[in-house]
Amino acid sequence: MTATVQTPGRAATPPPRPLDRRRLLVDAALTALVVLALSFALVGFKIEDVPGGLDLLLRFDDVVVAAALAFLVRLGVDLLGAGRPLPVLATSLALAGALAGLLVAEQGQTEPGALTRWLPFGAVVVDWLVVMIALGFAARAAADLWRRRATVAPVATEASTIAATLRVATRVLGPLLLGVAVTLPFLPEVDRRILDIAILVVTYVMLGWGLNIVVGLAGLLDLGYVAFYAVGAYSYALLAQSFGFGFWTCLPFAGIMAGFAGILLGFPVLRLRGDYLAIVTLGFGEIVRVVLLNWYQFTGGPDGISGIPRPTFFGLELTRTASGGGETFHGFFGLTYSPTDRIIYLYYIVLALALLTNAFTMRIRKLPIGRAWEALREDEIACRSLGINPRNTKLTAFSIGAMFGGFGGAFFATRQGFISPESFTFIESAIILAIVVLGGMGSQIGVVFAAVLLIGLPEIFRDLQQYRMLAFGGAMVVIMLWRPRGLLARRRPTIHLPPEGAGR
Amino acid sequence: MLRVDGLHTFYGHIEALRGVDLTVEEGEIVTLIGANGAGKSTLLMTLCGSPRAARGTISFDGRDITAMPTHEIVRLGIAQAPEGRRIFPFMTVLENLQMGAITTDPRHFDTDLERVFELYPRLRERRHQTGGTLSGGEQQMLAIGRALMSRPRLLLLDEPSLGLAPNLVKQIFTVVREINEGQGVTVFLVEQNAYHALRLAHRGYVMANGRIILSGTGQELLANPEIRAAYLEGGH
After folding, report:
1. Calpha distance B206→B203 (Å, rounded)
2. Opening angle at CA A340, ends A337 and A343, nearest 5
3. Are residues A34 and A77 in the same domain?
4. A378/B90 CB distance under 8 A
């Protein structure tokens, strides 16, 4: 074929490179083959519990569909890369339309499953996911077409327009998200389940923001953050159990104890960097967990600590009847009792804690210590040559980050009412770190998105448990491929001068 | 102002400095020239306490700073534009300069910033650009500017001309003179570019194999046939 071949409807600027059909097909077929090989054993066979034993289920249709989808996706990516958005747009729209149509029609069907056998995969959510991906392709293809129509937009400006869009988006999104977060408990359709998920997500947002101080700002890779979370939780639980202190009394203590633990960890690792630091912090996290597990007299070991008191509202309890002569919240304000009140209250506590963390970080970034953290992340030797004391700078980063972890831990303890070492395993550290890294290190709003993505979505799609880790891993790979510095990796400078000659 | 006596520095078993003596007087530009591996950068880094001197003393204003931690030495009024510039690549030019001022009274910030921008108008143009996107010459300007933001009395420069085009080298050296004469900052300059460095400096030292082998005024050294043969012939 030659370069003069033109598809109708596409303006001739700039002339697309000649299309090597064979190479495209081979590429897509190879991708499909890989998917086929990978999914043959994993997806093709399923062992199911049936009365009287196990049954082997064959699902080769799913394997074939998966391979076909992989073929299409790869072909689509290649076609977009070769500057042929039109066929991609048409195919993806047709596919998305057909699938979505079937899915919608299925919902209206009286006899369930009448149409689903025409759908790939058993799970409806997966089908919707396919629709989403197809729509994503369509959007990308449409954007390509539009850009070609506009004729200007040289490739060089693409990065800067993305940056500008992001800048506007983050400026608008922040207040918007805050508004949603504050009013969430009173929005329609928000029930106890969603509130519980929201509490979980906000807890992780807070932990992410806390860890962001250590990892994102100071650049110290900490794989044992959960240790501080545990210290905070146990500080509160033990203080409450032994002395009968309430949540608000213990909260500062939990933070201080965790901060102290941060300094304790900080000292031995001062000279370490990068991988070595990560290993030591990982060990520290495990040490804390193992101590909690084995120091039976003090922590209750694997039995954990139960009966941790709930937070009160200025001394008012959020229960149906007050214990020990206290007064209840609903009684004091003359409201009818609702068990959701307590959940809403918990939600606002954690939201306040998270916002506190955020406000603190935003503020400290503009102070000398915060700037020293960021400088330390970029170049330790340069820092030293500018008169920054690296030891103190690292220790403050560790302890302040740990302090917020401790606050989070105290909240966790009061929310659960029961804690045991099982809640503080390495996977928690890994998830919090993943939130920070995926969000874009040092980006505050990125942490929110990553927390919603990593915590909220898996909770919402609980029915898909078997695919959860698959999706988790897939999301990680995709993000690292497309946005290797994180979802919203745009550092906002902490200082600005007015433009030259602008009379403000 | 700065006095170095019998300085020895080791990297493991390798003796990089074998008894260096030199002085820098207030208001001077003093240059240290020498071939690769002579120990020039080691000397500069030993002055800042990293690596530590094994023997000998370093004193600044009559005060022994040999064993002082780096960040405290810097706070005495010694600023360094380190080898390889070491600017902060993800921070903007302005933030880099702000980092330089981290040890000083923030009230001076605006005047100091204006001073640096007058020396290097290019930095003013690029002030919101991140450090990593600057060209080599601009990064060198930023490194020197950042060092100046700490209001130093002694400025240590490690091969500011490294990897720069000839006209930029000239520009860098002109500004070093300006810093010295206009702002009264004493400059200790380590250079491989012997011709430019010696023309600029009041006095110079020549280093080889961890020892000072020659010293004199810039003009004397430039006229010295040995120096000409070793460092100046066949170039510049």
Report:
1. 10
2. 130
3. yes
4. yes
A268 and A402 both lie in a single domain: yes
B71: chain A residues, CB-CB within 8 Å: 384, 387-390
Q: Going by C-beta distance under 8 Å and a sequence separation of 6 or more, which residues neighbour residue A263?
A: A395, A398, A399
For residue A451, the domain's CATH number is 1.10.3470
In a domain, residue B95? The reply is no
Q: Is B82 a member of any domain?
A: no
Q: Which residue has the tokens 């981290």?
A: B102
Q: A366: nearest CA in chain B?
A: B95
Neighbours of B185 (CB within 10 A): 21
pTM for this prediction:
0.75
A193 and A135 part of one domain: no
Q: Would you call B103 and A385 a contact, using CB atoms and an 8 Å cutoff?
A: no
Provide the residue range defining the domain that includes A31. 21-155
Q: Residue B48 sits in which domain range?
A: 1-77+155-160+187-236
Cis peptide before A14 (omega within 30 of 0): yes
Pick from B50, B94, B100: CB nearest A386: B100
Closest residue by Cα to residue B20 from B29, B34, B191:
B34
Residue A401 scores a pLDDT above 90: yes
Q: Is the peptide bond before A368 cis (omega within 30 degrees of 0)?
A: no
Of A381, A389, A497, the CB nearest to B86: A381
The verdict on a CB contact (< 8 Å) between B74 and A384 is yes
Distance (Å, whole) CA B30 – CA B188 = 5
Structure tokens at A170: 């983050």
- Per-residue pLDDT band for A13 (boundaries 50, 70, 90) equals very low
Q: What are the pLDDT digits (tens) for A327-352?
A: 788 888 888 888 888 899 999 999 99
Read off the tokens for A484: 């290797």
ipTM: 0.86
The verdict on A37 and A136 lying in the same domain is: yes
Shared domain for A267 and A374, answered yes or no, is yes
Asked if B99 lies within 8 A of A371 by C-beta distance, the reply is: yes
> What is the 3-state secondary structure of A60-113?
HHHHHHHHHHHHHHHHHHHHHHCCCHHHHHHHHHHHHHHHHHHHHHHHHCCCCC
Do B88 and A374 count as a contact with CB atoms less than 8 A apart?
A: yes
**A498 in contact with B, Cβ within 8 Å:** no
Whether A68 and A120 share a structural domain = yes
Q: Are residues A150 and A186 in the same domain?
A: no
Residue A161 lies in a domain: no
CATH assignment of the domain containing B216: 3.40.50.300
Q: Does B123 map to a domain?
A: no
Number of separate domains in chain A: 2
| pLDDT tier for residue A3 given thresholds of 50, 70 and 90 | very low
